Known about the structure:
By secondary structure, this protein is α/β, with parallel strands linked by helices. The chain has seven helices and eleven strands.
Amino acid sequence: MEQCDAVIVAAGSGTRLGVTIPKAFVPLGGKPLLAHSLETFIAYPEIDRIVLVVPAGLVDRAVDTFADDKVAVVAGGAERWESVRNGCLASDAPWVLVHDAARPFVTASVIDALLVMRNRFDCAFTATPVVDTIRTFTGDTAGKTVDRSKLVRVGTPQLFRSSLLPKCFDLAATLPSPPTDEVFLMQQIGIPAGIARGDPKNFKITTKEDLEIAEGMLRLGMK
Ligand code: C5P
């Protein structure tokens, strides 16, 4: 199989978490949040190189903290897609896997399920089923109930054929609002996206409650 590098984006601010340090550096189980997914990718044999994308002011600290033969560190951008672009520019592999540092519970089997999609797709992502009833709303009034059997919860890691990414980033720069992932951009340029089986445990830490749940999971040995 062709080589695949991992890009871990960790340049977000953590505003919704209510912390003053960048989210990826918040402690979880006694080490920075970012360290959890990084360790999984370092231990994954098929990934040769990992690019960490951190806030510009923390590049030196990240180099000191996460030094490893497999790891390079670059500065992120104001929007997530700019951080992904900066990370991808530091890779010359034919494939890149993009992962949110805010998802510490990624596993080797989730990565396996995604990488196998290279046989059939130029772009793929991991996802889990929607289990709640989903309904639109205006103010405090409910609108339509959406058919959840046709929905998936989109997660990371996500996989891309590198040669297609420059066109995606050119497009992103022209959009009125920033894309929430690069699969959206791939779809906009006409590339079909495959769906790989994700793991509900690989949720994104966004709020203080998410962090508490993650601490509890670690105490229970769920990683
Ligand atoms: O903000 P959100 O939770 O969607 O961020 C998802 C991931 O993207 C996080 O790991 C965050 O650190 C990263 N990010 C980034 N650069 C930004 C914004 C978010 O690397 N400008």
